[in-house]
Structure formats: structure tokens, C-alpha cells
Amino acid sequence: MTAPSFVVAVDGPAASGKGTIAVRLGRMFGLPVLDTGLLYRAVGVLTDRAGGNPDDEAAASDGARGLTAAVLDDPALRTRGAGELASRVAVHPGVRAALLDFQRAFAAQPGGAVLDGRDIGTVICPDAPAKLYVTATPEVRAERRWKQLAGQGETVEYADVLADIRRRDARDGAREAAPMVAARDAELLDTTEMTIDLAADAARRIVEAARARWEASR
Ligand code: DC
Questions:
Q1: What is the domain extent for residue 77?
Q2: pLDDT class for 218, splitting at 50, 70, 90?
Q3: Distance from the CA of 218 to the center of ligand 1, in angstroms?
Q4: Would 2 be classed as within a structural domain?
Q5: What domain count does the chain have?
Q6: Domain presence at residue 1
Q7: For ligand 1, what atom is nearest to the CA of residue 115?
Q8: Which of 41, 119, 131, 180 could form an SS bridge with 82, CB 3.0 to 4.6 Å?
Q9: What is the sign, positive or negative, of the torsion defined by CA atoms of 142, 190, 196, 119?
Q10: Biggest alpha carbon distance in the chain?
Q11: Which residues are CB-contacts of 180 (< 8 A; sequence separation ≥ 6)?
Q12: Cβ-proximal residues to 103 (8 Å cutoff; 6+ apart), any chain
């Protein structure tokens, strides 16, 4: 079956470079971009602000129902704490189900879209014509995230950021609902030794090839 719109799925662990790559791909191919991690971050923060326990599925699902587009602009979603809350609420099938329709509707826009996350190529858009799985070693990802947090004014030890990254990798990869895993048909992009420009260029080539295959099959 031919996919109705040109969807680019960019999955991978925290600080692998997938967010920046997704934004650059959106610009290069003229497609809207959705950072799906932001949805889980918002649910985590809303649950926490309401005094709910993010490990409790009912409380986290209430958080998911309270989600509005305006919340997604809150800078608090970019903090280290929000990343941890996001990973905790993301284990609940009820939370994931509540976010499914929004993500699929975004992907179904005429012309296509780029979505980045953990389960885009496996669960949200399994028929996406272009799939990338972006990785890097935990040490390199921790260094990138540490520099990003420092740039935002968040003072934190590198060792603590590395511990966060390892804990989130373990939780996101081991959960039963839509675990973080490369789709069988995803192209692996290891950015450990790459600058962001090199990584974005490699991603562009992968997506160009996928677009040519997709157009030929229509
Ligand atoms: O991409 P990020 O670091 O902003 O994601 C934060 C957390 O949200 C991540 O640790 C797991 C969860 N997440 C998810 O389960 N599925 C997605 N599609 C995106 C993020």
C-alpha cells in the first residue's frame, strides 16, 4: 500500500541529535515538524503541577487530557526534570493512547511531515516512507545534553547527566508499551563521531533516497 503522505520518522534516544536533525530535515524538505517528546514532557509537567504522581497511570492520564497547544511553548518543558517526568509518564499505555490521534493527525497533513520521538517508525507511523534511527554513545549524548543545559543556565554535573541518560535509556527501552527500538526498516545513523552538520547531511541523503523510492512507487 502506498503511504498517503510523505512522513519522515526520526527516532532515537535522548540527545542523539534527532531533534536538530528533524528540524533541519523539515527545513530542507519543506515539511512541518513535530517534536513528540515535547508532548510527553508536557504531560509529565502538568501531572506534577497538579500534584499527581507521574508513576500513577490515572494521574498521568489526567495530565494527558489537560494538554493544550499553549503548554508546548513553556520553557519549563526543556529542563532536565521535565525529561525525567516525561520518561516516567511515557510508560503508561493510557498516556500513549491519549497522544496517538494528535500525532497521527499531524503526520497525515497533505504534503507530509517530520515527527521525532521513540516510537514513530514502529507504532505511530509504521508505514512512513522514510525512517531514521539516530544514535550516539551515552557519553557523547551526555556531553551534548550537559552543554545544552549549561547554555540554558541549568547548573549540573556531567556525571549526573550521564546517569540521567542511562536511566532514561533503560526505562524507555524496557517498557512494554511502545518501547524505544529501531524499526526493522529504519536506517541507522550513528552520530557519535559526527558534527551536527555532517549528521544532518547524512540524514538528508537518506531522506532523499527514500523520497525517490516513494515517488517511484506511487
Ligand atoms: O525526546 P525527549 O528527550 O524530549 O523525550 C522525553 C521522554 O518522552 C523520553 O525519555 C521518552 C518519552 N517519549 C516517548 O516515550 N515517546 C516519544 N515518541 C517521545 C518521547
A1: 7-217
A2: confident
A3: 32
A4: no
A5: 1
A6: no
A7: 18
A8: 41
A9: negative
A10: 52
A11: 11, 12, 13, 118, 119, 169, 172, 173
A12: 34, 36, 39, 115, 117, 120, 124
**Unique residue bearing C-alpha cell 521535565:** 82
pTM above 0.90, yes or no: yes
Per-residue HEC secondary structure of the chain comes to CCCCCCEEEEECCCCCCHHHHHHHHHHHHCCCEEEHHHHHHHHHHHHHHCCCCCCCHHHHHHHHHCCCHHHHHCHHHHCHHHHHHHHHHCCCHHHHHHHHHHHHHHHCCCCCEEEEECCHHHHHCCCCCEEEEEECCHHHHHHHHHHHHHHCCCCCCHHHHHHHHHHHHHHHHHCCCCCCCCCCCCEEEECCCCCHHHHHHHHHHHHHHHHHHHHHCC
In a domain? residue 87: yes
Residue nearest to ligand 1 atom 4, measured at CA? 37
**Residue 116 belongs to a domain with what CATH number?**
3.40.50.300
Look up residue 8 and give its three cell numbers.
519522515
- List, for residues 111-158, the tens digit of each pLDDT value: 999 999 999 999 999 999 999 999 999 999 999 999 999 998 988 999
Does the residue 119 lie in any domain?
A: yes
d(CA 153, CA 63): 27
Is the beta carbon of 36 within 6 A of some atom in ligand 1?
yes
Q: How far is 103 from 10, CA to CA, in rounded Å?
A: 13
CA of 87 to the centre of ligand 1 (A): 6
- The Cα 96–Cα 169 span in angstroms is 18
Q: Residue 3 corresponds to which cell in the numbers above?
A: 503511504
